[in-house]
Structure formats: structure tokens, C-alpha cells
Amino acid sequence: MRSLENHEAFEMAILQWLGSKRFLGSLSLGGGTMLRLCHELPRYSLDMDFWFFKTEDYEEFYKRLSDALSREHDLTDAQNKYHSILVEIQREKTMPKLKIEIRKTVAPLGSTEEKIAFSPHFPHQVLVRGFTLEQMLRNKVLALIDRAEIRDAFDLEFLLRKGLALDLSEEERKKVLTRLRGFTKRDFAVKLGSILQPELREYYRHQRFAYLQEKLSFDPWRNEH
Question: Which pLDDT tens digit goes with each residue over 162-217?
């Protein structure tokens, strides 16, 4: 757990650095890291996912970012891929690497807002732009259907517990339920348990995604679709 806390502090330090170098003004933070740092998602996230907030010259942005990172950090990987910019940095040899992926897509109009990123393991708050919770709900549904990662199901249940409305087509509902039923005991004990706060591990080992499945299976909800 201490390793995860240190990694989160490193994420905050990098966010602060990106802001100081004026990279954040072009980016919108998303994914589990945004939910964790801006909305207290009760699981840790090891990677940082960004989308562009405004149109940029991707080649020029990649060059500026990779050059700046290489001067001040241990840059272990940097790729200007077709669909995204990918960089990887490491704080110390004993710590996990931090992968930052920036999708070469401009966030939809009205899908982002200013937020405060914070952590109990870092002394400063950082002003960021991130996806609205409504947009994150939609993103997580699509991610769960596409890649069947248990962390996406956890994040989706978290968003529903915060009171967001789930508006799915019947086909999407069936696909999400299929994904939920496919998770194994090992998925809950290891893949999810290793990034959860300790007080939640036993609950999810035994209850799994009962709340989310109830929301998806509730008859009046199905009749509306």
C-alpha cells in the first residue's frame, strides 16, 4: 500500500510539473486517475490518461513534451503513435513506472470542466481540466464493453453510487452484464484487490458488483428501454 501511496504522490508531482510547464492548458484529464484525484475514487490508478482540450500540432506537442521530460525526469519511453502520444517516466528504480497516454482527439464540446486534483499523500493541490462525471460514465461504459477490465466496472459502480443516471441501450445493457458475469474470483482478489483501499477488499470479494448488477437488472429500468 505504501508503494501505491508513493506512486500517487508522483502522479500529483507530475501534474504540478505539467502545469508549471504549461502543458495542462491543452489537456483534459480522464480515466481512473481523474476520478481518484478529483473525486476520491476508492481505488488507486497507476496510469494517467489525457485527451486534448483544444486543437494542437501533435508532432510539435510531442517534441516539446518529450524534450522537457527528458531534461528533468528519467524518461524510459516516448512514442508518437498514430492515435496517441505515449511517454513513460520513473521516479526511482524501485518504484513502478508512470505511463502517460495522450489521445490525439479533442474532447467533445461541453464534456470537460475545471477541477481540483488533490491527494493526502501530496502537499499541494493542482488545478486541472477533466471530464465531467456524466462524460466519464459514458466513457466507462464503452471501456468496459471494449476491454473487459475489472477496474472499469468498479469505476462504473462508483459513479452510479454518486447518483448518476445510467442511460443505456438494451444491447449495451446486455453487453455490460455479460462482462460483469465474466469476472473470476482471481479478478476480484488480485486484479481489483491489489488497487483497492483495504477496507473495501473483503466487500468486493464477497459481494462483487451486486449494486451495479441490480441497477442493470431492475425491471422498471428495463421496461423504459
Answer: 999 888 999 999 999 999 999 999 999 999 999 998 889 999 999 999 999 999 98
> What is the extent of the structural domain holding 19?
2-131
Block residue for cell numbers 502520444: 85
User: Residues 165, 106: one domain?
Assistant: no
Residues forming beta bridges with residue 99, ordered by sequence position: 47, 88
φ/ψ (deg, to 5) at 4:
-65, -40
pTM equals 0.91
Counted domains in the chain = 2
Alpha helices in 73-218 (DSSP H): 133-147, 150-161, 170-181, 185-186, 198-207, 210-217
Those residues whose C-beta lies under 8 Å from the C-beta of residue 41, and which sit 6 or more positions away, are 32, 35, 155, 158
Q: Please, are residues 130 and 34 in contact by the beta-carbon 8 Å criterion? A: yes
Residues 55-79: pLDDT tens digits? 999 999 999 999 999 999 999 999 9
Q: Within this chain, do residues 117 and 172 fall inside the same structural domain, yes or no?
A: no
Q: How far apart are the first and last CA of the chain?
A: 43
CB 211 within 8 A of CB 153: no
